Amino acid sequence: RATMKSLRFLSAEAFVSNAEFARKSLSAVAHNLFPLLFKASYLLEQGEVIHDLVENWPLVDFNMGKLLGATLDYQEDLSHRTCSVCLENCLTGLRDYVLNNFSPYMKRLKVVDLTGIKDVEVQFCECKKTMGRWARTQLLSKLCLELVVYLQQARCNPGTFEITIDVLIDLFVTERNYELVVEALLKKCCCPLKICCVAFRSDNLTLQKFFYIIKLADPSLLRKLEIVHNVRLEMEHLEILFNSIHFPLLMSLTLPARTFNVRRFTATDEQMLTNIGEKMSEMTQLTELCMSFSILTGRLQKLLSPLKTPLKMLDVSNCSLNHADMAYLANSFHANHLEALDLSGHDIPELYPSTFFKLLSHSSSVLRSLTLEDCNIQDTHVNMLILGLSPCQKLHEFKFMGNPLSSQALKHLFTFLCGLPMLKNVEFPVPRDCYPIGVTYPIDDANVCRFDHQKYESVAEELNLILLQANREDVKASTPLFGSYDAAVQETNNELGAYLIKSFKETLEKFTTSLNKMS
């Protein structure tokens, strides 16, 4: 559906479509038209015009989320377009803003906010080449270092050294760009562009490197911390992290798999867990917590009860929760505030059906995203599930991959889902009757693709027809067999794969050495 454009926006498009003319005429453009021209240039992918607009930016702030978001002149939100041409010109324009001594405008820019850029799976830009979070981290670090070198070597206008611009960014650091980012952070004091890390994601890093760079990144500004793949952070390391670094503004924390991986808690482990809970309670802004694939059996209350702020997002997928954990969660003050909940990997119908539905009823007025993958939900549980989901009228997203449901049960469930007014995304499993008889759940990776694809396509068509007949074309229904799209993994999958192969090789070598010693 085409989005309406105002006459102002159409005029802006016409102006920037002739790049040569637009660049020559910028000095005659009123300051308040720069944001309009920037969005029009971004839509048309006029890289050179974007560069010159940023190089001569006459305003105090430059906020990508606001500039590309819905405006009165053009309602479409372009912040999900991570177009490489546009973003590269935007960042090089920022570097040249510092160096440009001949700009007709007084340099007023103080804050650049790059955090509003959203990385999504489907790109609509014509060049089809994206610049993800990792690449943005890489390029900004490189440009900052170029600036430092240039300012040290060249005879610049004395006013250049007085320029100070805070650049708010979501950093993404892996082994491959670690050295560059560290150098840029170390030289921050000498650079007019000050990297201000608002969110930090770390993959494929040794603990030593992670601890070093997180301190450099200024944790006092950090709102979101994601320690995800191949960072071997365990409970004792987490305690050291929280004891040595203060995160006063932290709102969202993601911990790597197996951070809490103690099957038999000793008195020392219990004390460690208590300390971690107390340190988390000092993070008064914390509302999002992800700690999947850990062993938290019977320990959830100890970890979450000290928190003074209710959680809005909780991911405890595959954490071996028992009835006491679920009872605590259902009766805790977090329950009434949960907007996103992931309980995947727990046999909910068998272990704690009534407690789960109590939790669902408490969070129903605010719940926007629910994930129940590999939860052993069968046909006999569908009516109960419908009953539990009925009050969840604000639900935007429901994911229930990996459950042994038949085609008939899925049709019944989809008919109900059509009635949830705000639902936009559904991830449903391959129907049980598409797999060979005798398949066991959860289905392992080796067998997950061994189903009747023709039959699945036929069922998927019927499910989409149910949505269509209910006028719910706005709902996207899919079956991502290997998990939902993750922009960060997509961007760094080669490095991630190489790291996994290296780890596997090291494990084999250790195993071989042990065998040789035994023999």
UniProtKB/TrEMBL annotation:
InterPro entries for the chain: LRR_dom_sf, LRRC14/PRAME
Check the record and name the Gene3D superfamilies matching this protein.
Answer: Ribonuclease Inhibitor
Where does the secretion signal sit in this chain? none
Matches recorded under SUPFAM superfamilies: RNI-like
- A Gene Ontology term for the protein's cellular component: cytoplasm
Name the UniProt key words of this record, in alphabetical order: Leucine-rich repeat, Repeat
This protein's source sits in the domain of life called Eukaryota
Q: What family classification does the UniProt entry report for this protein?
A: Belongs to the PRAME family. LRRC14 subfamily.
The name of this protein is Leucine-rich repeat-containing protein 14B
In its UniProt entry, the species of origin is given as: Pachyramphus minor
- Upper lineage ranks? Eukaryota, Metazoa, Chordata, Craniata, Vertebrata
